[in-house]
C-alpha cells in the first residue's frame, strides 16, 4: 500500500527487471502503476511504433499477472493525438472494441485514451475501468480539465506548462481535492517550452509504422534547437528528483490525495529506467540530468526483450551463419564498435579506456586502431575481412541488399566471403527498416542516423539546486519570452527573461568543436528533408 502522499506511474519496456528496481528503491510503495503498449496491436499511440519493445498477447498476459501480484496497476495506452477516424470505421471500429474487451478480459482495467468516442465506450462498457486522459489531449487550461472531467475521465495528464505554474497547480489541487478526479504531471520529458510543433509531431508518431521507422523531422529539429541554445534544455518543464518534494508538499498543503508523477519512457533501455527509478525514489541524482530525461540518444532506445535470447545465442555463432546469427568480429564486444568509431569522431579523453573496461577487453579488436586519444583517427587496418570502406552499404543502411549488389560490392573490394562475424543478407530479423529506404541516397541515410548520436552535453544535476525556486516564487513564464531560446541573438523585448539562460552557463558544459560538427551535420539533414534532396 502506498505510504506516500503522492504516487508514481512508470513507463514499462516489458523487462521483468523493472520489478526488481521497484523492490529495491521504492520503499514507500509509491509506484502504483506501469504503463505500456504492444508494438503490433494495430492501433496508433504516442510513440514511434517501430522502437516499441516487441511482446505477444500471451507475454503481456503474464506480465499483467506479475503486476497484479505486486498490487501494481497496468495501464494500457491507446493514446495518439488522432485515431485517423478508426473509431468510426465499420471494420476498424469493431476491431478496436474487440481489442478493448480482450485487454479487459486479460485483467487490464486501466486505459489511457484521448479519443472522446473511446472514452465514452470504455466508461459505458466496463463499469470498473479507470480512464486516464493522455498528454496528447493537451488540457492546457482549467476549463479544459473541467470539460474532460464531465466527459467521464478519471485521471488527467496535465500539459507540461502546469509543472512550473505552482499557482495554477495549487488552484487545481484545491478545486478537485474532494472529487475522484486524479491529476498527474510528467517529470522527465524534455519537450521545448510551449513547442509550436507538438501537434504536428503528435500526428507524425501516431501514424508511424510498427515495422518501419520514418525520418522524424520534429525530433531532429528539437534536438538541434536544444544543442544550438542549451538554455532551451532548462526551459523544458522537467521535474528533477531533488524537486519532487515541492510537489508532495503542494499535495499535502491542499489536502489532495489523488496527485501523481509520471516517469517516462517506455521506449528506453532497462539501464535508463533503472537510473530513473533509483533517482526519483531516492529523490537525488548525482550526474548528468540528460541521463534520466527523454533526451533522444540512440544508445538509450530499448532493446526488445524478445531479442535477448537471440542476442546471447548469436554471440557464439559461427562465421557465415544465417541472418541474425554470427558473433561480432574478433575481439569485438556484443555491443559493436566503440562509439567514437560509430559516430565518426576522435575518441574523447579517457573514453577508449572506459569503453574497454566496460566491455571487459584489454586490447583493441582485430584491426581496430589503438586505444587512447593519442592514436590517430583511422590508424590501423579495418577488422579482419573488412574492406577499408567499412561494412557493405546495405548493412550500414539497415536494408536488404539490392539484386546483384553483394556481388558488385565484393568484386569492388576484392573479397569473396563475408567479413568475420558479418551477417549475410542484410540486417538481423526484427530490426526495423526505414520507410522509403529504397529511394534514399545512402550517404543521406547514414547522416540521418548520425543525428541520433548527439554531442555530449553535460547538465550537472546537482548544480541545479535552487533553480526551481524562481518559478515557485515569481513565475512570469506565461508573460515572458526566453532569452537565447525563443528570442534570437540581437533581439530585445521588454518582457524578456534570462533566468534559464543564466543558469545554463553555470550548469551545462560541452565540447564546442564536437557541437559545431554535429550542428553542421544536423542542419544539412534537416534541409535535405525539407527540400527532398535526401532522396535519389
Keywords:
536 residues, alpha/beta, globular
How does this model look, in words?
The chain is α/β, with parallel strands linked by helices and 536 residues long. It is built from 20 helices and 14 strands. It is globular. The model is unreliable at 304-332, 365-369, 371-386 and 418-428 (pLDDT under 50).
Short description:
This protein has 536 residues and is of the alpha/beta class. The protein has helices at residues 17-25, 57-69, 92-106, 116-125, 142-151, 166-175, 198-206, 217-228, 231-235, 244-254, 270-282, 308-314, 339-342, 351-358, 393-396, 405-413, 442-451, 469-473, 499-507, 512-531, and strands at 7-11, 31-36, 73-78, 110-113, 130-133, 155-157, 182-186, 212-213, 259-263, 433-434, 458-459, 481-482, 496-497, 508-509. The strands form 4 sheets. It has an 8-stranded parallel beta barrel, surrounded by 4 helices. It has a two-stranded parallel ribbon with strand order 8-10.
As laid out across the biggest beta sheet, the strand order is: 1-2-3-4-5-6-7-9
| Morphology | globular
The proportion of residues in beta strands is 5-15%
The helix count comes to: 20
Radius of gyration: 24 Å
Question: Structural class of the secondary structure composition?
Answer: alpha/beta
Name the average pLDDT: 82
Number of strands: 14
Oligomer type: single chain
The largest β sheet comes out as: 8 strands, parallel, barrel
- What share of the residues lie within helices? 25-40%
- Pick out the low-confidence regions: 304-332, 365-369, 371-386, 418-428
> N-to-C terminal Cα separation, in Å?
59 Å
